[in-house]
Amino acid sequence: MAIAKAERLMNLALCLLGTRRPLSKRELRGSIEAYLEAAGDEAFNRMFERDKDDLRELGLVIETVENLDGETGYLARRDSNRLPPITLDAEEAAALGLAAKVWQQARLAGAASGALQKLRAAGMPEADDTYEAQPSALEPRIPVHEAAFEPLMLACRDRRPVVFDYRKANSARPETRQVEPWTLECWRGHWYLAGWDRDRGAERVFRLSRITGKVRSRAGAFTAPVPDVVTVRETVESWAGETATRSARIRLRTGCGYPLRARAQSVREGADGWDELEIPYGHGLDAWLVEFGPDVVVLEPADLRADVVDRLRAVAKG
């Protein structure tokens, strides 16, 4: 079965690369023996669509155009499927190899590995992989645990609007959001999506771990322009108080809240199982503190304490 599929893919690739005009599905079916043997039009269509997707996954650029008769046709232009000369030196090749190791998610790991193979086949120099030869206690990784990551990554790439249910930090129930996704970024171990929120008519940033259920794609074009530079990190930092000019004083249970301890301006250890911390205070700090639940008590300022209490009450009411 594997040999038959490989032969079928090879024949389809040769047909698409060898033609000077777009070939219709009917012409391709008449040119490839495996397609002629398909049991009916429906079986052929399923086989052809899978083969086309497999070739694109392997890196073949397949164009879909209309031929002179107004019929949809396919071709793979040779100039679109040829890499320019590779001029990477050994250090640049090593950097690419290291970057390919970052991804833990299976789909991205396969794509990164395939890209490296194509670059090496095109002449990229082989680099001594010291990371394989000498195991290290520290390895570069970007964890991706959220189910929403992959569909949102593809939606950002293809510029497709999406719909998903999103639960805010101060809400027990999720809300449906219609978003034009721009980019994904990892910050402090969490993934965030930046995009245009159609219902609110404004740019918004969403934490992927708060997306519930499936991400659904929607047809149609974006209604808002995509900015040249999307400052996800700056927005999240502002919400989390990273760019704050004020300070807050909190009590934190001993052994808990490492992210808060890492940002603390001062820590005074207590003998009662609680430590006292001074941390930067900016917009959105109340939402972040709520995530630590009963392990955090806000001492001052009073407005921050009141905001945290209000959020906790909202969650308790459901």
Number of strands: 12
Structural class: alpha+beta
Indicate the low-confidence ranges by residue numbers.
129-138
Q: Mean pLDDT, as a whole number?
A: 79
Helix percentage: 25-40%
Number of helices: 12
Largest sheet descriptor: 5 strands, antiparallel
Strand order of the largest sheet: 7-6-5-4-8
How much is the radius of gyration in Å?
Answer: 26 Å
> Termini distance?
54 Å
- Principal-axes shape call: elongated
Write the layout of secondary structure elements.
Blueprint (H helix, E strand, L loop, with lengths): L1 H17 L4 E2 H7 L1 H4 L4 H17 L5 E4 L5 E4 L14 H11 L5 H16 L8 H4 L15 H10 L3 E5 L8 E13 L2 E8 L4 E6 L3 E7 L14 H8 L6 E8 L4 H6 L2 E3 L5 E8 L3 H6 L5 E5 L1 H16 L1
Antiparallel strand pairs: 1-3, 2-3, 4-5, 4-8, 5-6, 6-7, 9-11, 9-12, 10-11
How would you summarize this macromolecular structure in one to three sentences?
By secondary structure, this protein is α+β, with helices and mostly antiparallel strands. The chain has 12 helices and 12 strands.
Word description of this protein:
The chain is α+β, with helices and mostly antiparallel strands. The protein is 38% helix and 23% strand. The protein is built from 12 helices and 12 strands. It has a 5-stranded antiparallel beta sheet with strand order 7-6-5-4-8. A 4-stranded antiparallel beta sheet has the order 10-11-9-12. Strands 1-3-2 form a 3-stranded antiparallel beta sheet. Strand 10 (266-268) and strand 11 (274-281) form a beta hairpin. The longest helix has 17 residues, at 2-18. The chain starts with a helix and ends with a helix.
